[in-house]
Amino acid sequence: MTIRSVMVGCGAYLPARVMTNADLEKVVDTSDDWIVERTGIKSRHIAAEGETTADLAEQAARAALAHAGLDAGQVDLIVLATATPDHTFPATATKVQARLGMTRGVAFDVQAVCSGFVYALAVADNFIKAGQAKVALVIGAETFSRILDWEDRTTCVLFGDGAGAVVLKAEEGRGTGADRGILTTHLHSDGRHHDMLFVDGGPSTTQTVGHVRMRGQEVFKHAVVNLAEVVEEALAANGLEPSQIDWLVPHQANKRIIDSTARKLKMDGTKVVVTVDHHGNTSAASIPLAFVEAVQDGRIKRGDLVLMEAMGGGFTWGAALVRW
C-alpha cells in the first residue's frame, strides 16, 4: 500500500471590496477595453484597510476545515504560501496557527510567488508521505494590493487579494493513478530571470517593502513555454494524455497565457477553470481560489483528475496532479 495525501476539504475567502476596471480608470491612465484585451481581467477583490494576509488565510482555513468536517486540533501541519506576509517574521502561518487554536505540530510559510501553492502542496505531500504529518492545511494567501505601484498601469491592473486552502489527510492507496489524493508534483526554478518579475524592495536591500516590477512580454513568453513543459512532465510521469485530464486549474495570471497553454496541450477549453476575469492575479491564492470555485459550483466532482500548474517570479514554476 502507498500513503497518499488526500484532499478532504477546501475553502476560500475573498475581501468584500470589489475593484472594477471602471474604478481603475479613475486611478491610473487605463481603460476597461485595454485591460480586458490584454489580460481578460474585469474585476478583482481588494483587502480592506487593516485586513491582512493572516486574516484572509484564517478565513480560508476555517472554511476548508469545515468542509472537511475536521477541527484545528486534528491538524499537525500548516504550510502557507505567500509573497505578502504580515511581517518579515514570524511566519504568517504561525499567526493562523494561533488563531485556529492549533497547539501542536508545525506551521511555516513558503515563498515561490505565484507558484507558491503548488510548492506548498509538494512540501505538505512529502511531509505526509514521510510520516511526519497526518493532517495538513495548505493555504495560499495574498494581499498583493499592498505592494502595487498604483501609478504603474502595466502592473496595478493585474493583481488582486484573496486566499484559498485545502486540507490534506494521510490515507492508504494502491499506488496507482486511480488513487485519490496527490499523485505527483513537479517543481522547477531558474534564478537567472530574477529581473523579469520582482519586487524592488526588501529588508536586506532597501529596508522597504517595495513594489512589483515586471517585464510583461518576456514573462509571457517564458510562462507559455514553461507551463506547457511542466504539464507535459506531469502527464508523462503518470502515463496520461491531455484528454484524460478532467480539469486543468491553472494559475490565474492572464487569460492569454491560460489560453495559449491549453492550445499547446490541445485541451478542450471547457475543461479549463478560469477565474482571472473576476479575481485578477492573486498570486499564490489563485489556484486554490479557482479550485474551490469549481468544486462549489459542481464542475469538479469527487474522483475527477485535476491538473494544477503555475509560474511565478524567480522564475519558479510547477505542476501537481491530483485526484479529487
What does this structure look like?
The chain is an alpha/beta fold and 324 residues long. It folds into 2 domains: 2-173, Thiolase/Chalcone synthase (Peroxisomal Thiolase, Chain A, domain 1, 3-Layer(aba) Sandwich), CATH 3.40.47.10; 181-323, Peroxisomal Thiolase, Chain A, domain 1. It has 9 helices and 13 strands. A 5-stranded mixed sheet has the order 1-7-6-4-5, with helices on both faces. Helix 3 crosses helix 4 (92-100) and helix 6 runs parallel beside helix 7. The two termini are 19 Å apart. The mean pLDDT is 97.
Give a topology summary.
Layout: E1 2-13, E2 17-20, H1 21-25, H2 32-39, E3 43-46, H3 53-68, E4 77-81, H4 92-100, E5 106-110, H5 116-129, E6 135-143, E7 161-173, E8 181-189, E9 197-199, E10 212-214, H6 216-237, E11 247-250, H7 255-264, H8 276-279, H9 286-296, E12 305-312, E13 316-323
Parallel strand pairs: 4-5, 4-6, 11-12
Antiparallel strand pairs: 1-7, 2-3, 6-7, 8-13, 9-10, 12-13
Helix pairs in contact: 3-4, 6-7
Name a few traits of the molecule.
Peroxisomal Thiolase, Chain A, domain 1; five-stranded mixed β-sheet; four-stranded mixed β-sheet; 31% helix
Walk across the major sheet and give the strand order: 1-7-6-4-5
Number of strands: 13
The unreliable regions are: none
**CATH class (first level) name of the largest domain:** Alpha Beta
Distance between the termini: 19 Å
Average predicted local confidence, pLDDT: 97
Strand content: 25-35%
CATH topology of the largest domain: Peroxisomal Thiolase, Chain A, domain 1
Number of domains: 2
Q: Main beta sheet: strand number and arrangement?
A: 5 strands, mixed
What CATH architecture of the largest domain do you see?
Answer: 3-Layer(aba) Sandwich
How large, in whole angstroms, is the Cα Rg? 18 Å
DSSP helix fraction? 25-40%
The secondary-structure element order is EEHHEHEHEHEEEEEHEHHHEE
Structural class: alpha/beta
Categorize the overall geometry: globular
